[in-house]
Design goal:
By secondary structure, the chain is mainly alpha-helical. The chain folds into three domains: 147 residues, no CATH class; 98 residues, Tyrosine recombinase, N-terminal domain (DNA polymerase, domain 1, Orthogonal Bundle); 189 residues, hpI Integrase, Chain A (Orthogonal Bundle). Helices cover 54% and strands 5% of the residues.
Length: 474
């Protein structure tokens, strides 16, 4: 089957190809122009190649007239802009588009590709088309949008919300996890999409932020916690912008207070495990030969109160057999860095894991996964599926509920809240606790852990057979 004009096949993908007129070949010193399109779909290739070939043809015309100032890529860029407008139709004319095109042509002027008169002419033409469109449909003209376009053409446009967000996310890359960065980007991008990417940061007011909350955030059928996180993400971004001098005040300050909390009673998302449920899970995991790490993972979490990845990151060097403590070297906050006394029920388990590990981790062979490359990513999902197969159908009983179960047992055992907070790695409240009692004695922590009692579960864990941990790809 013959290919459409301008399309060339290379292996499984297509390229755009334009054979230059002979007169241009002699001047340009080349026979043709070729560009890979990166697609194996012929229909997609035809659509992608259209503006590229149109730009090459315009370049060939300029060369034939002796104009060699620009490379073919400049003409391709111009053709792609024109193609987009033709493709999308007159509805594409909007202040947002005019500003974007004004910024593009100003950048081309700065690069020496076009002159100032060309920039002014294009913006004038775009504005005329936009005004004519609005008049045809009887709609109001966005005067401020037109003014922004004029300023953009002169390089006087202030920092836009899109540019500010890009800089903010780039700067936060070093101190946010990949997952947190992705969530922050998702939440803040929602505001950019609503307000318009070319709106200047300095023009975003509290009225704007309030309308965003009322029209976009509030109507969403999600929890108040989720809505608060979305507002908080924008507040953090604008706080950074204020410190950078992009704005004078943060329009999102105090907006969370307007999210009313329902007075209706709702079921908690998690609950503590009962002794019977723990025994069901532990007995079921004991016989799991395919995933032998699930039992020690559960036991360690239950008797230390550690988070999933805190357990999965434990190494032999974190185990102090003389003092009988496990050291958490890093975590989600400074309070997460701590020493956790080892409960008598899991001493034999921890010693066996440290003695038999093939790679230095107490839970060996875990493959990092997820956005942040966490060792607990895969085994956490496996654990969830496995306990459901054992008959634990209550969705409130998740892995993190083991931590809540430990904390509850420690408090019931007589430990004070401050000691339990230190053992569990929780941030403590108040100036006194954060400044003057950062590290309570290990003996107090040891007493708190020793007071944790799960009845028959303690004896079962202590006496359970512990198979040699095998490398797992969970």
């Amino acid at each position: 089957m013959s290919l459409p004009s301008g399309i060339k096949r290379r292996g499984n993908t297509y390229s755009a190809r334009y054979v230059l007129p002979r007169s241009v070949q002699r001047i340009a010193g080349r026979h043709d122009l070729v560009q890979a399109l990166g697609t194996s779909s012929l229909s997609d290739a035809v659509e992608l190649a259209g503006p590229i070939i149109a730009g090459w043809k315009a370049w060939a015309v300029a060369v034939s007239k002796g104009d060699m100032r620009h490379e073919p890529e400049v003409y391709v860029r111009r053709a792609e802009v024109a193609h987009r407008l033709i493709r999308d139709g007159i509805d594409q004319w909007s202040p947002e588009l005019i500003v974007e095109r004004a910024r593009e042509v100003f950048a081309m002027q700065q690069a020496g590709e076009i002159g100032a008169n060309d920039v002014e002419a294009q913006v004038d033409l775009d504005v005329e088309r936009y005004v004519a469109q609005q008049q045809d449909v009887g709609a109001q003209i966005d005067v401020e949008g037109v003014r922004r376009a004029r300023r953009a053409a002169l390089g006087q446009l202030g920092v836009t919300v899109a540019d500010s967000l890009e800089a903010y996310l780039h700067e936060r890359t070093g101190d946010l996890t990949a997952q947190s960065l992705t969530e922050t980007k998702k939440r803040c991008t929602k505001f950019v999409g609503w307000v318009g990417s070319n709106i200047e940061m300095a023009t975003v007011t509290r009225v704007t932020a309030g309308q965003f909350l009322a029209k976009v955030i509030q109507p969403r059928p999600v929890s108040r916690t989720t809505k608060t996180k979305e507002i908080s993400a924008c507040r953090g971004w604008f706080q950074w912008a204020m410190l950078r001098g992009e704005i004078d005040a943060n329009p999102f300050d105090g907006m969370q207070a307007t999210l009313k909390k329902s007075k209706r009673g709702t079921e908690a998302p998690r609950r503590t495990w009962t002794e019977g449920e723990l025994l069901v899970v532990l007995r079921g995991l004991k016989d799991d030969r395919r995933e032998p790490l699930l039992l020690p993972l559960t036991s360690l979490a239950l008797y230390t109160g550690m988070r999933l990845n805190e357990v999965c990151n434990l190494t032999v060097t974190d185990y102090d057999s003389a003092a009988q403590v496990l050291h958490v070297r890093e975590g989600k906050s400074q309070a997460a860095v701590r020493a956790v006394p080892i409960h008598p029920a899991i001493r034999s388990t921890v010693a066996a894991l440290a003695r038999e590990t093939p790679d230095g981790y107490l839970l060996p062979g875990l493959v990092p996964g997820g956005p942040d490359g966490k060792r607990g990513h895969g085994i956490g999902k496996t654990w969830g599926r496995r306990i459901r197969s054992l008959g634990i159908t209550d969705r409130r009983l998740v892995f993190h509920a083991l931590r809540a179960t430990f904390i509850t047992a420690a408090l019931n055992g007589g430990a004070t809240k401050e000691v339990v907070q230190q053992v569990a790695g929780h941030e403590r409240e108040g100036v006194t606790m954060t400044s003057y009692a950062r590290v309570l004695s290990l003996e107090l922590c040891r007493q708190a852990v020793a007071g944790v009692n799960f009845g028959a579960t303690d004896e079962y864990v202590e006496n359970a057979a512990r198979p040699t941990p095998e490398t797992s790809s969970a």
